[in-house]
Amino acid sequence: MSKGSMKAIVKTEAAPGLSLVDVPVPEIGINDVLIRIQKTSICGTDVHIYQWDDWASETIRTPLTVGHEFAGVIDAVGSDVEDFDVGDLVSGEGHIVCGHCRNCRAGRRHLCQTPNAVGINRDGAFAEYLMMPASNVWRVNPAISPEILTMFDPFGNAVHAALSWNLIGEDVLITGAGPIGIMSIMVARHAGARHIVITDMNPYRLALAKECDATIALDVTDGTIAGAQAELGMIEGFDVGLEMSGNPAAVNDMMANMAHGGKISLLGIQNREAAVTWDDVIFKGLTIKGIYGREMYETWYKMTALIQSGLDISPLITHRFHYTEYEKAFEVMASGESGKVILDWTE
Ligand SMILES: [Zn+2]
After folding, report:
1. How far is the CA of 93 from the centre of ligand 1 (A)?
2. CATH number at residue 239
3. How far is ligand 1, taken at its centre, from the CA of residue 167, in Å?
4. What is the spatial distance between Cα 20 and Cα 93, in angstroms, rounded to a whole number?
5. CA of 257 to the centre of ligand 1 (A)
6. pTM listed for this prediction
């Protein structure tokens, strides 16, 4: 059932940049759905692919339609798909799991041995249509707007990292005030945390973090986490740490400011040579958990429930562009002077 051609934002050659080109509308298999894209948002990963850094040049095979943060409506369903109807408002899990490794079969799909990623290992969502297995699609009530829904992928990173630990009445340290760090403030606040301190060096993002209800948004070029603890009257250190920066200094700063028995989620990707203060881990009895992606589909359930119980992540959207203005949108994202940047595919 070929539907002709569509516009897509594509990495056409192994070099910096992206192109808006015509590509065939993807054909769906019997277990797939075709999604007509309404909104997408740009991830830091997309910026790496745009800029063609070492990671991107080692990972991406061209040509590739990029993008994995999306919201859209079901346009067509494969003959064996029973759970979805044309017109359903959906987003989807961008990690396509193998389905037969030990963890997949045990229902721990976020721990799949060989996941494929939409917009990285297979064609992505910055296009008029996206094809994916129906088992990866998440439907929501249309009371949730497509703009909110398009952020479910990074929101899920924040929810997965934050809700890995008990947060009620706890003091939370977040290192890195990118969109996922700021969404983590909102989740921790909604979940009943007491003090939430977030660190960064980018004044724009720290101001946004403060607006989004951080107790203290700390510029680490201008103050210390120990100083923030003193200001809040804290004595024993943070109970929960959420590392979102990928900066080795931030990790060690976090370890130094944790309470004994503290829990840490590590999400920011560290340089392979990054040194860790193991003394803090051992003598404080810290628990460290690596966070990759979202739990399928418990995190998606929680995200939906959090939004429906009043968590509003819309203040994080700072820029909106038509998809034809994608160059401008990527420029804004790369500048660091943004929260989430949304692309509109509806016109
Ligand atoms: Zn698997």
Report:
1. 14
2. 3.40.50.720
3. 30
4. 24
5. 37
6. 0.97
**Backbone φ, ψ for residue 65 (5° rounding):** -75, 125
* Residues counted in the chain: 347
Count the neighbouring beta carbons within 10 Å of the beta carbon of residue 276.
Answer: 13
Residues 121 and 245 in one domain: no
- Asked if residue 247 and residue 162 are part of one domain, the reply reads yes
86: three-class secondary structure by DSSP: coil
Q: What is the pLDDT of residue 272?
A: 84
Percent of the residues in the chain that have a pLDDT greater than 70, as a whole number: 99
CA distance 61 to 58: 8
Quote the crossing angle between the two packed helices 152-162 and 179-190, to the nearest 10°. Answer: 50
Which residues lie at CB < 5 A from ion ligand 1? 97-98, 101, 104, 112
- Rounded distance between C-alpha atoms, residue 46 and residue 333, angstroms: 10
Q: Are residues 104 and 191 in the same domain?
A: no
Q: Supply the residues annotated as catalytic.
A: 45, 48
Which residues share a beta bridge with 174?
Answer: 198, 242
Query: Sign (positive/negative) of CA torsion 8, 181, 263, 304?
Result: negative
Domain that holds residue 65: 5-151+313-344
Q: What is the pLDDT of residue 21?
A: 98
Cα separation, 184 vs 165, in Å, equals: 12
Count of the separate structural domains present in the chain: 2
Same domain flag for 278 and 146: no
Q: What is the residue-wise DSSP string for 272-318?
A: TT----HHHHHHTT-EEEE--S--TTHHHHHHHHHHHTT---GGGEE
pLDDT tens digit sequence for 204-239: 999 999 999 999 999 999 999 999 999 999 999 999
pLDDT tens digit string along 144-191? 999 999 999 999 999 999 999 999 999 999 999 999 999 999 999 999
Nearest to 28 by CA among 79, 72, 69: 79
CA of 113 relative to ligand 1 center, distance in Å: 5
* Dist. CA 207–CA 202, nearest whole Å: 9
Please state, in angstroms and rounded to a whole number, the distance separating the CA atoms of residues 338 and 116: 29
Token output for 291: 């966070």
Positions of the chain with pLDDT under 50 = 1
